[in-house]
Amino acid sequence: MRLLLVEDDNHVAAALSAVLARHGFDVTHARSGEEALQALVPEVDGFGVVLLDLGLPDQDGYEVCGKIRKRTSTPVIMVTARSDVRSRIHGLNLGADDYVVKPYDTGELLARIHAVSRRTSHEDTSSGIETELRLGPVHIELPTRRVSVEGTVIQLTRKEFDLLALLAQRPGVVFRREQIISEVWQTSWEGTGRTLEVHVASLRAKLRMPALIETVRGVGYRLVAPAG
């Protein structure tokens, strides 16, 4: 898999590139946001994942993420020292598929890269069944991956849509955290649990329906179908 590493620190980039190369990745290193954007030409980029450090010298990393998402659907994993939920939700709203908080374990990073790449590959090769889900004012079109609330289209990231679609197919049923992680992230790695919490929070905020997804303490989540 080709991977675009956006990192301004040459020492960090060299060490990480070596690790990634040992695991079969073909790494292209961009030292700035502008270099990253130049590398991501939709017709020819061919990257499987973008690993985006937010501490760039020329542009704000969040701004770069937004520009990347407008240019290509390639999965983006943010690397950030900001561990608060609000910062992570902001990144997801801009189109990031996942994030890794510094300092991170190499095994964690590899697990997240493989998870987003597997999910993307599955989406590209699967043929969707034409169907839709209606839950009160929420309308979910599975084939087109389109979500609207009272007719207003809501922009969701790939993982946010997958999470919502999973819960919405069985309203009222409690999904265990492990089950959600397995089906949405295609992994059993336990550290993905925090990512799940952030995606749930982001969905609640974007849909402006905090009661739509209920937390079942110690178990997981369920979708509470709204009236109307």
What does the main sheet amount to? 5 strands, parallel
Roughly what fraction of the amino acids lie in strands?
Answer: 15-25%
Strand order of the largest sheet: 2-1-3-4-5
Q: How far is the first residue's CA from the last residue's CA?
A: 46 Å
- Helicity level, as a percent range? 40-55%
What would you call the structural class? alpha/beta
Strand/helix succession: EHEHEHEHEHEEEEHEHHEE
Q: Please compute the radius of gyration using only Cα atoms.
A: 18 Å
- The overall pLDDT, averaged over residues, is 84
| Global outline | globular
Pfam family, one: Response_reg
Keywords: DNA-binding, Phosphoprotein, Transcription, Transcription regulation
DNA-binding region: 130-225
Modified residues (4-aspartylphosphate): 53
Write up this protein.
The chain is α/β, with parallel strands linked by helices. It is built from eight helices and twelve strands. The strands form three sheets. It has a five-stranded parallel sheet, with helices on both faces. Strands 6-7-8-9 form a four-stranded antiparallel sheet, with helices on one face.
Short overview:
41% of the residues lie in helices and 21% in strands. It has helices spanning 10-22, 33-39, 61-71, 85-93, 106-125, 158-168, 177-184, 193-207, and strands at 2-6, 26-30, 49-53, 76-80, 98-101, 132-135, 138-141, 146-149, 152-154, 175-176, 213-216, 220-223.
Task: Break the fold down into its secondary structure elements and pairings.
Layout: E1 2-6, H1 10-22, E2 26-30, H2 33-39, E3 49-53, H3 61-71, E4 76-80, H4 85-93, E5 98-101, H5 106-125, E6 132-135, E7 138-141, E8 146-149, E9 152-154, H6 158-168, E10 175-176, H7 177-184, H8 193-207, E11 213-216, E12 220-223
Parallel strand pairs: 1-2, 1-3, 3-4, 4-5
Antiparallel strand pairs: 6-7, 7-8, 8-9, 10-12, 11-12
GO molecular function, one term: DNA binding
Modified residues (4-aspartylphosphate): 53
Organism: Streptomyces africanus
